[in-house]
Every structure is written in structure tokens, then in C-alpha cells.
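Input C-alpha cells:
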């Protein structure tokens, strides 16, 4: 295999926290000649932390990062009398659930429902159990963890019924979820330390700062503006063009 012809589709778990990566893992990264990502902040992180300068190819890589409005045509929002909050996307500590729970304490007496996906975990399960116990302790029956993997359409139905999205990651994570939720016109809170904050902001997308904004009201014109950007950018046609550039040019 000619390593000069290999591509690394950059994934946050492979890239971030170089001090925690094995020696072999770091050596492989230092010898990669071509990388693929849509997040130029990740490419800069690679340069700054691994001191390598591979060739960059731009693509959002996966169909899960495509917003296809047709998928939601048979999904209807349910009548509900509470505000649904999506908290995190997995049972990994980088979601910073405890930080988010603390930020939401002022809403404890409000009519809210915390949807917290915890089905996906790359750890030993102890973190997941800790967050489940803490969630019930702080929010009681307002806390609704998702503990099993769902059929795709069932998960899309949940996303379609979410009102507010709160992700506290400080690395590139949950990108596919964020694309879907912005395309659906949801209010998305991120940390300004996340590379996705800068990436989305540079594209003209309006995000909300998890550290400084506790207002759950929505500005519909801002959300419609976000939807327009997502529908124009994250299309299957654009993905095909990106992949054609990588594999044929």
C-alpha cells in the first residue's frame, strides 16, 4: 500500500487530546499525507499539536452530514405542553453533562423535558451510570435518558420534536446531529471553545453561547436563516462534488 495515496477522514476521537494517544497512534498521524475534513479548525489543530502538514481535502464526508428535508416529510411534530431540550449526543465525558445540568438548574420548576442520548459510549460504562443517576437526582421525571439505539426514523422523530439543543463539547463532535437540528430550525447552544462554533459562525449560522445565554425563547427569523444556509450547503449534490474531487481529480 502506498501511504502517499491514503486518506485520513479526520474524526475527533482520533485527533484530539494527543497527550492521551498512544505512541503508535501519534506516529501514524505524523505519517499521514492526506486528510479529509470540512472543519478547517480541526486541520489547524492537527498542525499545531502534531507538527505535521498533510494535504487537506475538503468534504463533509458522510451522508449523515447531509440535510435531506424529504426524510422528515412523514414525521410530524407531536402536540406537547413542555419544552424539549436535547442534552448531549453520547455517554462520553466530552459531552460535559454535569456542566449542562448545572446551567439548567434555574429551569427546575419549568415545564421541561431533558432528552439525553446515552446509548453510545466509548468508555467503560461508569460515566454513563453516573450521568443517569445524577440526571434523575436533579431533574426527576423531567430527565429522559435514551439508553438503547433507536431505528433511524425513530431518532429523526425525536430530533424533529426537539425545541432547544444544548451541546457543551469543546472539540469537534456531534456534527451530524447539529446539521440536522439546524436544518430543522432548532435553537442550538454550543460552547465557544468548540471548533464547530467558529466553523458555523463563519458560514453565517447563528448559534447561542452556552456560557452566557440562558434564554429559552427563540428568534424565528434567525432560525429560518440557519435553515436556509444548511439546505444550500449540506446537500447530497455538494457531497458528490467533494468526493469526486478527492477520488477522481
Amino acid at each position: 500500500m502506498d501511504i502517499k495515496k491514503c486518506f485520513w477522514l479526520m474524526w475527533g476521537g482520533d485527533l484530539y487530546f494527543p497527550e492521551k494517544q498512544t505512541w503508535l497512534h501519534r506516529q501514524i498521524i505524523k505519517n499521514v499525507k492526506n486528510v479529509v475534513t470540512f472543519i478547517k479548525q480541526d486541520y489547524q489543530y492537527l498542525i499545531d499539536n502534531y507538527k505535521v502538514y498533510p494535504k487537506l481535502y475538503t468534504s463533509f464526508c458522510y451522508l449523515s452530514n447531509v440535510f435531506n428535508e424529504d426524510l422528515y416529510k412523514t414525521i410530524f411534530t407531536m402536540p406537547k405542553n413542555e419544552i424539549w431540550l436535547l442534552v448531549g449526543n453520547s455517554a462520553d465525558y466530552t459531552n460535559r453533562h454535569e456542566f449542562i445540568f448545572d446551567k439548567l438548574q434555574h429551569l427546575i420548576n419549568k415545564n421541561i423535558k431533558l432528552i439525553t442520548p446515552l446509548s453510545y459510549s466509548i468508555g467503560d460504562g461508569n460515566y454513563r451510570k453516573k450521568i443517569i443517576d445524577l440526571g434523575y437526582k436533579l431533574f426527576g421525571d423531567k430527565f429522559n435518558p435514551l439508553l438503547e439505539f433507536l431505528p433511524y426514523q425513530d431518532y429523526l422523530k425525536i430530533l424533529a420534536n426537539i425545541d432547544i439543543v444544548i451541546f457543551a463539547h469543546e472539540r469537534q463532535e456531534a456534527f451530524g446531529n447539529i446539521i440536522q437540528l439546524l436544518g430543522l430550525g432548532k435553537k442550538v447552544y454550543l460552547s465557544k471553545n468548540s471548533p464547530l462554533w467558529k466553523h458555523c459562525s463563519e458560514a453565517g449560522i447563528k448559534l447561542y453561547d452556552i456560557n452566557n445565554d440562558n434564554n429559552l425563547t427563540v428568534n424565528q427569523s434567525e432560525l429560518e436563516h440557519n435553515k436556509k444556509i444548511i439546505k444550500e450547503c449540506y446537500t447530497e449534490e455538494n457531497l458528490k462534488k467533494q468526493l469526486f474531487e478527492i477520488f477522481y481529480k
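The chain has two domains: 3-58, 69-233. DSSP finds ten helices and nine strands in the chain.
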